[in-house]
Design a protein that fits this description.
Layout lengths: L3 E5 L12 H14 L4 E4 L11 H15 L4 E5 L5 H13 L4 E5 L8 H14 L4 E5 L1 H4 L5 H8 L4 E6 L4 H10 L4 E4 L5 H5 L5 E4 L2 H17 L2 H21 L1 H11 L16 H17 L3
Parallel strand pairs: 1-2, 1-8, 2-3, 3-4, 4-5, 5-6, 6-7, 7-8
This protein binds 2-(acetylamino)-2-deoxy-D-mannose (MN9).
2-(acetylamino)-2-deoxy-D-mannose (MN9) binds next to strand 8.
């Protein structure tokens, strides 16, 4: 499995909200050919996974692998509160040629830390592919401490963690304690700060549209070229400001559409793409054009 920059893949839907065959192919190929990403993180938050049914998640998981054609690494996000779904998706990911699976913490109920730990151990024990923990307490509502994460990282089938959190003290301590595990940072606006701590890569939503800038930040940070890294992180942050200002998901989809990638609308309960999203998307692509990749 490659280290580096992974897009949290945008999933493409048709007018009825079902996965769009044409749109999925277009967004996967755009990420590989134009964004040059090292890998795809399929069915994550950005893929609107939590708003999709089981069959549709199976479909996007399989199509993304088909369209990636072995040209980049693949991680399937299979998290859910339903163990049967998780294990079926893990088997499908293995059959489809994924490198790893990832699972968000169970959501909604206030789970005790030891419940989260046993849940992940069960997934790791039964998954045919290595498991990358998906830690995003801000959205999942479920948090565990550094102690529990470290306990889990000792499991031989737990390969690492996608760390979408701001506690970089914890990130550094775990990085140092587990040099052989994979650490991916999850907030695009914190890519540089995470990279200087020695992360192995990053997984993010904005890389669907500004992947080359993330690759610059990561490579420059690793080479110790902080000036370049800061310049590109600044560009990423300006893009994040535009996206969050207008609404992340519809604006990201509007930007991809504007770039010729027909990803369609978001799934309900997310709203439809409106003029304010399209205007922000045009501003983002204009900025991307002006800033350039070099
Ligand atoms: O995959 C993404 N998180 C969510 C991680 O979409 C919830 C990030 O890429 C953020 O979208 C991004 C903007 O805050 O950092």
């Amino acid at each position: 499995m490659r280290k580096g920059i992974y897009s949290a893949l945008v999933n493409a839907f048709d007018e009825s909200g079902r996965p769009s065959r044409e749109g999925m192919r277009a967004v996967v190929r755009y990420n590989i050919e134009r964004m040059g990403v090292d890998g795809l993180y399929v069915n994550g938050s950005t893929g609107e996974n939590m708003n999709m049914g089981f069959e549709d998640r199976m479909t996007t998981l399989r199509w993304a692998a088909e369209d990636a054609n072995g040209e980049c690494s693949l991680i399937a996000q299979i998290g859910s509160n339903v163990i049967e779904d998780i294990l079926a998706l893990a088997r499908a990911a293995a059959d489809a040629g994924y490198d790893a699976v990832s699972a968000v913490t169970p959501i909604y109920y206030q789970f005790a830390p030891e419940e989260v730990v046993s849940w992940y151990r069960r997934i790791a024990d039964e998954s045919p592919l290595p498991l990358i923990l998906y830690f995003i307490p801000k959205l999942s509502g479920t948090s565990i401490g550094r102690g529990e994460l470290s306990l889990l990282l000792e499991h031989e089938n737990i390969a690492g963690v996608k760390f979408t959190n701001t506690d970089f003290f914890a990130l550094e301590r775990m990085r140092s304690a587990f040099p052989e595990k994979l650490f991916f940072s999850g907030f695009d606006e914190m890519l540089l700060s995470a990279a200087v701590l020695g992360t192995d890569g990053a997984i993010g939503s904005t890389y669907n549209i500004i992947g080359p800038w993330a690759k610059k930040v990561f490579a420059a940070a690793q080479a110790g070229d902080l000036e370049t890294a800061r310049r590109y992180q600044g560009a990423i942050n300006a893009a994040v400001d535009i996206l969050l200002g207008a609404g992340l998901f519809p604006t990201l989809k509007a930007a991809l559409a504007e770039a010729g990638v027909p990803v369609g609308e978001c799934r309900a309960p997310m709203g439809r793409i409106e003029e304010k999203h399209r205007a922000a998307a045009r501003a983002l692509l204009g900025f991307r054009e002006r800033f350039g990749a070099e």
